[in-house]
């Protein structure tokens, strides 16, 4: 039943996120002709979808929702006065933290999965074609990078008390991480640039001319990122075990 | 095997920064009895309870609940499985309805009693479909009590359980607590309502500034504790601190003694020292509480002044 | 003293925001020689600063901090069990809301001034020329755009009980607003707040040099500030009617 509790705590954000993502995808498809007609340069439909969904609105929406999902947890419960009840349940603190984390990961996956179906369907409705193979590939990238945004915020939310502080710290920290990866001596770790990895920009698995993902997926980078995210959750769990409530 | 002592602490200490909330606390709670846990605000009651339930770690010392170590993470889970607890703040998940919270809590315990749950739901008039955040404070307290009492725990720990309850509910709760030991449940509860404690408690544990100052069966307290009022024709002489004298206050020709035992011998001694009137009277828990705590305050203030004088 | 209460509730967020914005400005300016991307978009240092700070990632962080500063209020008081105390104070709900809005607006004005000073100082250290006047001209734009962003989350925090749901709602609304304002039909109205803050709406900056042109964005500043005040006013009306 800890799952139920975690679900109740995150469901509004998850459902709101899924609805917003679906609406964004539908709206982007709906206005495709207008937007492409007014673009600075001619654009293919695939380019337009990449630029609108995977390189701006959809991606930004997804990443911030992943961060918001990562906030909360036992420290927030402490502030709201419910941690006493939770901690006297006959379960380990690790169990509490991991049930919350896993439910959050499910939320991240659910939001990332929305464009998989919605984009091809909405494209079809607009008389266009956007293959599900592409949306699935992008969903994998989103899930990989989304988990690290989620995990990092989760870690902060279990270390720093105070409303919204984890969100406030997480996003700029990850941005600074992205900036620092542009430094010459870190440039060799291109695959760890989560901001380019998520949309394929300047990546070997992305066809810059056609704006589609081609070739093998960056499995190594994705696994490394997911493992990093799990490490963040593990550190959060250990921190909570030491903490006094 | 039935443990004779369900809670035992040895030099249990908790410090927050430089502040010592619990100071080498040694106490024990006997099984299948009701123990009233008393103390002023900030005396260390909630910190002690939190340590017993593994919410905070002791700075030093040790303790066991139901024979399980409180500072061991695995044993702490087992403690929580066998103990029911109602916290001071009654913080419950506001986003769940009453029925959802009951279902949620029930899933963690094998000793849940659906018939008791139904009975208490009706008795407390808790609306199952109402969200917890929409309940009044008293109703939230009732819900917290329902979640604890719907089980058959070996130990029931209650922190200020009657706070916010109406008189009828208080009476019902006290009756429930009185019956609990018959079902094998030990009750350990803190309260500032001394009259309630006096009505139902078998044992009293009084702490002040983290130190146990009284740990005794109520029966024994009633039998042994006495107020001895002495009257002298001239200024009262200096009296020896005989065995049993807990506090002694002198006001020119009047001396008031709080004795925890040996009252007859103290009275006899006072007569020998010239007391013209000696009145030995039983004393209520409330008076013992006030005398003990206030005397400790006086002693601390005295020490403080002495230190200040020394500095001057 | 209501101001003091609001300040105490939001000061950690404010100081953290200030540190993050200043930190990002300094990282971009001090590491300029290593981060300078070259290429077709950035030809000179001024463009680089605009691309990274006044019209780039730092502006994004500033907008995020404005969203976060707008959250809180009586709903949060309720969740933390302090609502009874707050509402029992002999002040109107309007005063409570106004004090929160007032402190928030002042904080945003203070935050909007940071990049001008941080970038000028950083540029001086790395021996680059960028006058304080260049950065200062962005401050009113950032302040107006910031209070508008603040107004969105302020209203969301009044309408939604959960702190993270109100943040999610505010952010979703904000993203949709930005996307909507890019629609060709709405483009003539120059509603895109991020472009406005970057000085690119419509063309207060020369897009090829990223230097200020002769016309300054007085009208959009007034409009965005007015819109922010309207959002706060709606929040105030909603608070007055709420059963808390």
Radius of gyration of chain A: 19 Å
Low-confidence stretches of chain A: none
Q: What do we call the CATH homologous superfamily of the largest domain in chain B?
A: P-loop containing nucleotide triphosphate hydrolases
Question: Biggest sheet of chain B, strands in spatial order?
Answer: 6-7-8-3-9-10
**Sheet/helix structural class of chain A:** mainly alpha
Task: Give the key terms.
heterotrimer; A: 245 residues; mainly alpha; 71% helix; globular; C: 244 residues; 12 helices
Polypeptide structure, described:
- The complex is a heterotrimer of chains A (245), B (312) and C (244).
- Chain A is mainly alpha-helical.
- Chain A has helices spanning 2-30, 32-37, 45-54, 57-70, 74-80, 83-87, 93-125, 132-157, 165-180, 194-197, 219-242; strands at 206-207, 212-213.
- Chain A has one domain (2-242).
- Chain A is built from 11 helices and 2 strands.
- In chain A, a hairpin with a 4-residue loop joins strand 1 and strand 2 (212-213).
- Chain A is globular, with a radius of gyration of 19 Å.
- The mean pLDDT of chain A is 93.
- Chain B folds into 2 domains: 5-218, 3-Layer(aba) Sandwich (Rossmann fold); 225-311, Alpha-Beta Plaits (2-Layer Sandwich).
- Chain B is built from 10 helices and 14 strands.
- Chain B has helices spanning 45-52, 73-82, 98-106, 114-123, 137-149, 167-179, 194-200, 218-224, 263-272, 285-311, and strands spanning 5-16, 19-30, 34-38, 60-65, 68-69, 83-86, 155-159, 186-190, 203-208, 211-217, 226-231, 245-251, 254-259, 277-282.
- The model of chain B has no long low-confidence stretch (mean pLDDT 90).
- With 244 residues, chain C is mainly alpha-helical.
- Chain C has one domain (2-241).
- Chain C contains 12 helices and no strands.
- Chain C has helices at 2-30, 32-35, 45-54, 57-69, 74-79, 83-88, 93-125, 132-136, 138-159, 163-181, 193-197, 218-241.
- In chain C, helix 1 (2-30) runs parallel beside helix 7 and helix 7 runs antiparallel to helix 9 (138-159).
- The longest helix of chain C is centred in the middle third of the chain and has 33 residues, at 93-125.
- Chain C is globular and about 60 Å long.
- The two termini of chain C are 22 Å apart.
- The model of chain C has no long low-confidence stretch (mean pLDDT 90).
- Chains in contact: A-B, A-C, B-C.
